[in-house]
UniProtKB/TrEMBL annotation:
Residues 185-308 form the Probable transposase IS891/IS1136/IS1341 domain. It comes from Rhodococcus koreensis. It holds the Pfam family HTH_OrfB_IS605. It comes from the Bacteria. One of its GO terms (biological process) is DNA recombination. This is Putative transposase. NCBIfam families: guided_TnpB, IS200/IS605 family accessory protein TnpB-like domain, IS607_TnpB. Keywords: DNA recombination, DNA-binding, Metal-binding, Transposition, Zinc. GO terms for molecular function: DNA binding; metal ion binding. Residues 401-433 are annotated as: Disordered.
Length: 433
């Protein structure tokens, strides 16, 4: 089993410059290899227009990590005479990244890779060989060429596993994210088969905006609204940036020192909001995995919901995609069963007591009242109960389908692009604000 351990770093100015240089070297090698590959393909295409075929054409350039690295090593003295300032792994990382991108294009998983910009590309560099790892004091890490760098937190959790012989560091990835330098160690751990839970603790989770989630047990998890709490300070910080002299690529104007300080204040607010939101999501998903044996969630089309300009900020603030991603790997490790309801399953329109489905259910109706059995309960709790029932009904709930309703069977394979889709539970424009 391979897991990643991420640590924030507190480098000196000289170490930060060396880190930026390594990440820049990765980008240079990536762009140079990409230019060579495109030139090779364009040359072959031009030769084919003249009627050349077979061996008459220019040979294909190797696009494997080894082939790209070999081509880079042959030309690095001319392309980058300063290459000795950085570790050779920085250039190998750029070649490997391009090889993976081209492989994804060949497999149809991605489009043709593009050149990385110095201003917008994320800075990262991977080390697979050389002297890297933890230092015995558990407050520093070792990186090739860069040296010993202090961490902002203790590395004891990983150090104890390494000292016990149950973990082995495979690689280290240096990156600049959320306004700080980080190092991520890829660690090889022994494979453990989690004991499958056989208990009957089942919960349906209906995600929303007014509340982060409503469980089938009746509990409502509060939405902390981390961004809304800092929105006033964030707007003030962004206005301060707008009043300063910022960078201009068209005229070549360099940013002023006051702009850099104002930009740093705004970035710190963004980082704080992201960290708090990530912590809330981890605490919620971890509690679900610990307390229940079967978890049922919805397959929400989050990307489509974000097109709603009135609710986009609120939808992005609850991190529905992160909740599903974390539940996926946490349930797998803990032996918990995770059931994902079909995107067309009408959990909000279906009565959780008798199974009768309503033809229409506007978003402003926050109470579900069934005309058949007379049950009255919260709309989100009714949807969560229907989701929990999928754990035993395997995707088919007993219900009536009235004429003109948009309700579909939970197991139907409907296309993702639709005109009348199920409304996401909990999306209430009046309560979201």
């Amino acid at each position: 089993m391979i897991r990643a351990y991420l640590f924030a770093l507190d480098p000196t100015e000289a170490q930060a410059d060396a880190m930026a240089s390594h990440c820049g070297a990765t980008r240079v090698a990536y762009n140079w290899c990409l230019a060579r590959v495109k030139a090779n393909w364009s040359q072959r295409a031009a030769e084919q227009t003249y009627g050349l075929t077979g061996d008459q054409l220019t040979p294909w350039m190797a696009t494997s990590a080894y082939g790209l690295r070999k081509a880079w090593n042959a030309a690095k003295n001319e392309v980058a005479p300063w290459w000795k300032q950085n570790s050779k792994e920085a250039y190998a990382s750029g070649c490997a990244n391009l090889a993976a991108a081209l492989a994804n294009r060949t497999a149809g998983r991605a489009k043709m890779p593009r050149f990385k910009s110095k201003r917008t590309a994320r800075m990262s560099c991977k080390f697979t060989t050389g002297q890297f790892g933890l230092v015995r004091d558990r407050r520093h890490v070792q990186l090739p060429v860069i040296g010993v760098v202090r961490t902002s937190e203790s590395t004891r959790k990983l150090a104890r596993k390494i000292e016990a012989g149950t973990a082995r560091i495979r690689s280290a990835t240096l990156s600049y994210q959320r306004g700080r330098w980080h190092v991520s160690f890829s660690v090889d751990l022994p494979d453990t088969e989690p004991a499958e839970r056989t208990g009957g603790r089942v919960v349906g989770v209906d995600l929303g905006i007014s509340h982060l989630a409503t469980l089938s047990t009746g509990e409502q998890v509060q939405n902390q609204r981390r961004l809304d709490a800092e929105l006033r300070n964030l707007r003030r910080a962004e206005r301060a940036c707008a009043r300063r002299l910022g960078p201009d690529r068209r005229t070549g104007v360099a940013p002023s020192n006051r702009w850099k300080k104002a930009r740093a204040r705004a970035d710190r607010i963004h980082t704080r909001v992201a960290n708090l939101r990530r912590d809330d999501t981890h605490q919620f998903t971890t509690r679900l995995v610990r307390e229940f044996d079967t978890i049922v969630i919805e397959d929400l089309h989050v990307a489509g919901m974000l097109r709603n300009r009135r609710l986009a900020r609120h939808i992005a603030g609850v991190s529905w995609g992160q909740i599903r991603r974390q539940l996926t790997y946490k349930t797998e490790r803990a032996g918990v069963r995770l059931v994902v309801a079909d995107r067309w399953f009408a959990s909000s329109k279906t009565c959780s007591e008798c199974g009768t489905a309503k033809a229409k259910l506007p978003l402003n109706e926050r109470v579900f009242a069934c005309l058949a059995c007379g049950i009255v309960l919260d709309r989100d709790e009714n949807a969560a109960r229907n989701l929990a029932a999928l754990a035993v009904d395997t995707g088919e709930l007993r219900r009536e389908l009235p004429d003109g309703s948009d309700v579909r069977r939970a197991c139907s394979h409907a296309p993702q692009s639709h005109r009348h889709g199920k409304s996401p539970t909990g999306l209430n424009a009046t309560t979201a604000r």
